[in-house]
Design a protein that fits this description.
7% strand; mainly alpha; 434 Repressor (Amino-terminal Domain); plasmid; Lambda_DNA-bd_dom_sf; 5 helices; HTH cro/C1-type domain-containing protein
Length: 87
């Protein structure tokens, strides 16, 4: 897995329009944990590798591609989320 940033995780979830609570349920983490990961790069780097892998895998399965330039894009053919608002 390539290194991903807090910003990429936040941008990927927002790109897919997956609400925070919905995403947390998909990944199996608490809302506060997601907020910390999305907004604190240092904390994200100290988060268990398995948790970050689950987040990245979930986003990739939903149709996001993490690019080496630090951005994300939506792949065609991804799984559609139920939508919802983001915080």
């Amino acid at each position: 897995m390539q290194k991903v940033s807090s910003e990429q995780i936040r941008d990927a979830r927002n790109l897919l329009r997956i609400a925070g609570e919905e995403f947390c349920a998909m990944v199996g983490i608490g809302r506060r944990t997601l907020q910390r990961i999305e907004y604190d790069q240092d904390l994200m780097e100290r988060t268990a590798y398995g948790t970050i892998m689950k987040i990245v895998e979930t986003l990739e399965e939903a149709g996001v591609e993490f690019l080496t330039d630090g951005t994300v894009k939506k792949r065609s053919g991804g799984i559609s989320s139920g939508g919802g608002s983001t915080p």
